[in-house]
UniProtKB/TrEMBL annotation:
The keyword Protein transport applies. Belongs to the WD repeat SEC13 family. InterPro entries: Sec13/Seh1_fam, WD40/YVTN_repeat-like_dom_sf, WD40_repeat_CS, WD40_repeat_dom_sf, WD40_rpt. This is Nucleoporin SEH1. GO terms for biological process: cellular response to amino acid starvation; positive regulation of TORC1 signaling; protein transport. It comes from the Eukaryota. Keywords: Lysosome, Nucleus, Protein transport, Repeat, Transport, WD repeat. The lineage of its organism: Eukaryota, Metazoa, Spiralia, Lophotrochozoa, Annelida. GO terms for cellular component: lysosome; nuclear pore outer ring; Seh1-associated complex.
Amino acid sequence: MFVAKSISAGHKDLIHDVAYDFHGRRMATCSSDQSVKVWDLGDDEEWKCTADWKTHYGSVWRVTWAHPEFGQVIATCSFDRTAIVWEEIVGESRQEHGQSHWVRRGTLVDSRTSVTDVKFAPKHLGLQLATCSSDGVVRIYEAPDVMNLSGWTLQHEINCKISCSCLSWNPSRLVCYNLSFL
């Protein structure tokens, strides 16, 4: 039986996106308050906010999780014309006692307008990230070294000739489409 639960997210403005990790045990939210929050599902089946930080200089439109094979990695995109890749680092010092924090690993600044969506590729394509922006450009980036997330290379730039507000990857290994936009 499905039971709907609500949580008090504590954002100070409109929430634009909610994304679950691969296993459905973690959740991220983003908001016009320029912040992202990460939530963990406890043994008691309650969501607990485990991280909360300011990510951008404008509204944060989307948040997405990478496949866990690449670690605990999320990406965000914003009205401030950037997409940012974040990695969770678990503290190893005695003072941190296993607490985690999120570190900015890469900032993608190619867009001249608001970046409206961001999605990681299916894991069989490697660590790739697609963005789209309100000026109608889809960009696909790749991290050539998955151990160093600070180096992202622009692989493709596709001009759609119309404003883009969302995108998605096809998860199939068997199907390949060549899309054109009129």
